[in-house]
Amino acid sequence: MLVMNVTKVMKVMKVIKDCSIGQFDNLQFDNLKPETMIKIENTQACFVELWLRLERTRRLLWAQNKRFCPRRLLKSWFGLRANDDFIWEVCFRASQEMEDPIYGWDILPLPSLYPRPHREFLRAIVAVRLGITMCQVNLRALDKAYSVAFPHSTPINVNKK
């Protein structure tokens, strides 16, 4: 067991040494870990996954005593790809559809109790990642996905046709 710990320490020391030399100059953002990357599509199945991931991320950030805000949410979902420009673009597009703007450090409410800000936020994420306009995001699929993800909550747009 001691031999295993020594080899782990040696590997860590080698990584630290490589960092100090500058071996990470050729780091590519396309080779990120698949656990941090989300495949975004304009389908109901993807929207269900986004709603569920939104709630899981809220619980995770709460357990870590961190703020549930757009910046932390996007950083945890997209890793290094969530730079300041991406976060600004998502918040700006989400703010266009609501009366109150969303900023990067604003605390978001619970998704199961207040779905409208989150619907616009997820809609903006999909629009920015796919390079489409907000009008091209499938709102019916997004609303149905909310009903699937939170079956005990009131559906969004229940009285609209």
Describe the fold and architecture:
The chain has 161 residues and is mainly alpha-helical. The protein is built from 6 helices and no strands. The chain has helices at 2-21, 44-63, 70-78, 84-96, 115-130, 139-149. The protein is globular and about 30 Å long. It starts with a helix and ends in a 12-residue tail after the last helix.
Strand content: under 5%
Shape: globular
Order of helices and strands: HHHHHH
Mean pLDDT level? 80
How many helical elements?
6
Total number of beta strands: 0
State the separation between the terminal residues, measured CA to CA.
65 Å
Structural class assignment: mainly alpha
Oligomer: single chain
What share of residues is helical? 55-70%
Largest pleated sheet: none
- Uncertain parts: 15-36
Radius of gyration (Å): 19 Å
Write the layout of secondary structure elements.
Layout: H1 2-21, H2 44-63, H3 70-78, H4 84-96, H5 115-130, H6 139-149
Helix pairs in contact: 2-6, 4-5
Task: List its salient traits.
single chain; 161 residues; mainly alpha; 55% helix; 0% strand
How would you sum up this structure in a few lines?
The chain has 161 residues and is an all-alpha fold. The chain has helices spanning 2-21, 44-63, 70-78, 84-96, 115-130, 139-149. The longest helix is centred in the N-terminal third of the chain and has 20 residues, at 2-21.
